[in-house]
Amino acid sequence: MKKKKSNPTIQRRRAFLTNVTTIAGTALVTAIPGVSLAGYWSIQSSLTVKQVIDIILKEIPDAPFERTVDQLRTGSMDQQVSGIVTTMFPTMEVIEKTAKSGANLIIAHETPFYNNQDETDWLQEDDAYNYKIDLLNKYGIAIWRFHDYWHRHKPDGIIMGNLIKLGWEKYYDAENQRIITLPETMGSQSIVDLVKAELDIPSVRLVGDLKQNCSTIYLAFGYMSSNMQIAAIQEYKPDLILSGETREWETVELVRDGQQMGQKTALMVLSHAVSEEAGMEYAAKWLQPKVPGVKVSHIASTNPFTFN
Q1: Reported CATH class of domain 49-153+277-298
Q2: What is the side-by-side order of every strand in the sheet holding 105-108?
Q3: Residues 186-229 pLDDT 10s
Q4: What is the pTM of this model?
């Protein structure tokens, strides 16, 4: 079989692009008339999983941490990344959609394996676990947890993602990122309506009065221990806590007792998954300019519950 000759013009252009991007960066190359990067990224800008993670960690104060759940849970650090998907929970549906999109790295906020440390010894005979592992192996998909680091980012990525969705980002306080103060009070019913519409939550649970006016709001998206929530009530006395989830015999009952004795703090429970999804959608937008040669998209894991 006759060997195909290389095109010297193409070779010179590739060498030129390599030299220019090394010296001046991608932005300069895209400004050169007649030069397109459409086919360039496939040649020059492939990243490994480890390189993507390293890019992220450069943005996190004090990273890497000695102990963290943010580990590579499937796949290899050395595999080339064809695309990135951010999500809250790496469900089987998210895995299928990721493969269909051509991506092979899922950056997930929460555990793929049903426990925070992603321990799997106890799951070896479990049908759901084995099905998920087979699916990941079939598509060659790597999963990296982005939990501790995303919360440690300044601002906290989950909090900021939610604030942007709710139109409250201008009220963010870097000195105390869990408390926002609205310039004008909002009724609890109006906040319920806003949260349901903007965070795509079908229903919420409220301990308190729907007619109550709220100005100070404490942000407890995802899971927060009752000790932290109750301490926040004691210290800040917020009008409302926006909570992802909490044990019903703890914060819920303290807030109910407080309401019955005339205290103002109400509690709105959104559900864990949907209370942090906006933060992972924001993660995709935050990450994309840092990896310009790789497509980053968000696939929502959605609410696991139906309401009848």
Answers
A1: alpha beta
A2: 72-74, 142-145, 105-108, 84-87, 296-298
A3: 999 999 999 999 999 999 999 999 999 999 999 999 999 999 99
A4: 0.84
